Amino acid sequence: MNFSIVNIQDIKKQDWDSFAYNHPSSFLWHTYDFIMGKNTWINHSNESFAVLDKEDKIVGIFPLCKIEFKQYRFFQRSYLDNIGGWLCKEDASVYTSILLEEYRRRLNSEKQKFANINFATASIFYKEDPFFSQGLPSHTARISVLDLSLGMDVIWSNIRKGHKSDIRKAQRSGITFKKASSEDLDIYYTMHQYICKKSSIVPHNKEYFEYIFNVAIPNNQAFIGIAYHEGRPIAAVNYGIYKDKAVYWTAASDEAAYKLGANHFLHWQMIQDLYSRGITCLDMGEVFFNHSSSKIQGIVNFKKGFGGNLFPCFKSKLKEK
Fold this sequence. Notes:
alpha+beta, Aminopeptidase, single chain, eleven-stranded mixed β-sheet, 34% helix, 15 strands
């Protein structure tokens, strides 16, 4: 069989996105712009590639990036990371094998420490573990997914009582909602820097949010809401959107938001908007039953409080030979 491996940089954006969009298991994480946007993160570089057939048509894609880090303070190491899994034409096993062979080659030839694959939101398209038939080690996490087709009355009834109280508190406090546009980038990024400083983590490059605000929003692939209190922005939530599905992507806020219930209010406003658009489900992200970090468990409890159902999230970690 004649085929070739080609890096994403050597493929036309239109060809890559057309293949992804027409695949039944594709999501935002497979799009050209998201892949390029993610690689603006600190210490990230692009390793995404595609398989082309003898007619130079794409028959499979594999989003991938290399992330560098220091080990023992001195040694520079790196690992490969994927979100969304791979896509193959008609899920043909031969093309899947070619994609994974190249994935393994890059893991071993470039001396990566390990490689991650996380199907994330795309997991909802699979009835069985996609790693099993490929002989790859895997473990199944859980994501919380809201079925928006149930309608607002049912969704509201499924929301935790404490969340409803916070939503009502925000309404009584005069919190207002605004749908963000590209002009609100600096507002969002200022809050992002604040929350990162508070959590002692490095903020993402502003270029990443320039992609979200200047590319994803105009292309209807991001929906960002901002909560205001007394004329001041205090919280923002970002949903990624692709076809008829959405994902809780990023968020930022200041201290006042927690006291006023602004985050709960924002999600409720935005869930109603998604429903009006005909979006069928919202992935609130990965959840845990009992995380060792009380902070992470608090975030998990917040996500689960909106009443989603738990779905498998397929993940794999492969170590170098």
